[in-house]
Design goal:
alpha+beta, BirA Bifunctional Protein, domain 2, 4 strands, globular
Length: 218
């Protein structure tokens, strides 16, 4: 992964089409490394989550090209590689497993990030009905050791349909049900990277299953 980190550092310093085109072979080489890593992780995740078996790496990996049409940031390329591994790939609404490789900003995690209104409503309703089960999962000692907190993206007040004094309003106000663990560059390029990533993903299995049940049973 050292070459991947090195390429992304160079891209960050030269985020323009001229440099990218002249270094396209390096991009393709590193893209292929991430596709291979995605394939390895799909196979490893499949050992404990059968839902991801058979998903194609190319359907999980995000494109490096940015959509700048509605963005003030006109840089044409992302300065990271990432894949979201779930049943149906990155475009599905399913809960899944994500890795993000970026110099000084890498992390692994998963869950459901910024779902549309209907899946979000389904998750909140399901949590309201099964709050004890959800809280038991995310407060489990082995889970907390990897993911101490949920991704902090919350409404300032109660979501529509729930009273402000709901006993589980502190959970229902979240707009994402996602978790992440930061990684240092030394960990990304280290020999234990895949093993550590698989361990982090394995901790997410129960919460992903819960979230998928929530959306599938709505």
């Amino acid at each position: 992964m050292e070459k991947v980190i090195h390429f992304l550092k160079d891209l960050s310093a030269n985020n323009n089409k001229e440099w990218f085109h002249s270094n396209r072979p390096a991009y393709e080489e590193n893209r292929d490394k991430i596709l291979f890593l995605t394939e390895v992780l799909i196979n490893e995740i499949g050992k404990f989550d059968k839902d991801v078996m058979g998903v194609m790496p190319k359907d999980c990996m995000f494109r490096i090209f940015r959509d700048v049409r509605f963005s003030q940031n006109k840089q044409p390329y992302k300065t990271n590689f990432g894949s979201f591994i779930s049943k149906g790939g990155r475009k599905s609404m399913n809960a899944g497993y994500y890795f993000h490789i970026e110099p000084s900003g890498s992390f692994v995690g998963g869950g459901v990030y910024m779902p549309p209104a209907e899946p979000l409503k389904a998750i909140r309703n399901y949590i309201a009905e099964h709050a004890d089960e959800y809280l038991e999962i995310i407060n489990e000692k082995s889970f907390k050791a990897v993911y101490p907190e949920m991704y902090n993206d919350q409404l300032k007040t109660a979501p529509k349909g729930f009273p402000k004094d709901h006993p589980y309003i502190h959970v229902l106000r979240y707009k994402s049900f996602a978790f992440s663990k930061s990684l240092k560059n030394e960990e990304v390029v280290g020999e234990q990277f895949i093993e550590q990533t698989v361990h982090a993903f394995e901790q997410l299995y129960k919460v992903n299953r819960f979230l998928n049940d929530a959306m599938n049973n709505s």
